[in-house]
Amino acid sequence: MADAYIVGAVRTATGRKKGRLSKIHPVDLGAMVVDELVDRTGIPVDKVDDVVFGVVMQIGSQASNLGRNVSLSSKLALEVPGTTVDRQCGSSLQAIQFGAQAVMSGTQDVVICGGVEAMSTVEIGSNVRDGLEKGRGVPKGERLEADYPGIQFSQFDGAELLAEKYDISREELDAFGFLSHQRAIHATESGYFKDEVVPIPIKLEDGSSDLHTIDEGIRFDASLEALQSLNPLREEGVITAGTASQISDGAAAIMVANESAVKKFNLPVRAKIHSLAVVGSDPVIMLEGPIPATQKVLEKAGLSIDDIDLYEVNEAFGSVPLAWAKALKADPEKLNVNGGAQALGHPLGGTGAKLMTTLVHELERRQKRYGLIAICEGGGTANAMIIERMDSVAE
Description:
Elements: E1 5-11, E2 15-16, H1 26-41, E3 50-54, H2 66-73, E4 82-85, H3 91-105, E5 110-118, H4 126-133, H5 142-147, H6 155-165, H7 170-189, E6 200-203, E7 209-212, H8 224-228, E8 248-257, H9 259-265, E9 271-280, H10 290-301, E10 310-313, H11 319-328, H12 341-344, H13 351-366, E11 370-377, E12 381-389
Parallel strand pairs: 3-4, 3-5, 10-11
Antiparallel strand pairs: 1-8, 1-9, 2-8, 5-8, 6-7, 9-12, 11-12
């Protein structure tokens, strides 16, 4: 079986809810990161075999096969197809996994994998609400109701259950939320994100033009005291708005290729996809999946958690990476080193590719070898992947 190489990785800076990216159509935003990959890699526009894009709320501007619409809106040739993936918050990480499997099998040679979510325009849960309002039913059928009677699957409840199970206190959560902002501020001010971020042209309220290059969710005046003053989202809970991921707009894309394509098109090797995994877990606690997904991907790779140089575990809620680190005895100094979704935002379908982009660039900046990414997902699933930084296919 062939190896899968990451040859390009880019993202937008995220936009806040109703913020600087909110007027841009999600298909156009996705096409912008695809175009940047084409420019940076030099791939001929007719030599990409597929575009696989993740998006969660597949309704309105994100409906009608967004992946194909992104391909049609980009520099890619008309003949390049596109498809759309929904694995909830891990949708674009799943897109990367599908792309990797395609090039590893040899059925395809070059795949652009990514994701986008315009949460300002297509609000979270809008697809379910539309079904209810129009009498089209709910996602939970009779068989699922029989297995989980009266239970409404909720990520908010799951975040609290996770904190309780792993004995994570309000104090730990507030400190971790503050650390996320501190790390994001340091990374931004130090220019660590400069190479991975695609400048996005925007129109301001006064009619002037600007380039969006800085993650809009970062609170540069963040303080621990401010986080400690927030009320919990659930009565007697420990999760607050400050220790939950931010509603965001954004897109990211990764190009994966096998050795044949790397050599044929002289593509710049950045990393090898070392191993990948996807698991199901309890849909009630829901957010615990990154733990078994990580255990599975480490076992497949023949590595231990200590062998990994950097971890990106999505901060859907602060309790997720904190529980993950406790369960796996992971080094917290390697975890989300440039901040996470509590500060940088979580554009649902785009987050997996966004985190992968940051991981690739940070491994290069630090000249480290292995990186691991894990994402919890609605419904009790999780994806995990290990990449290995490389400079060529000969390593």
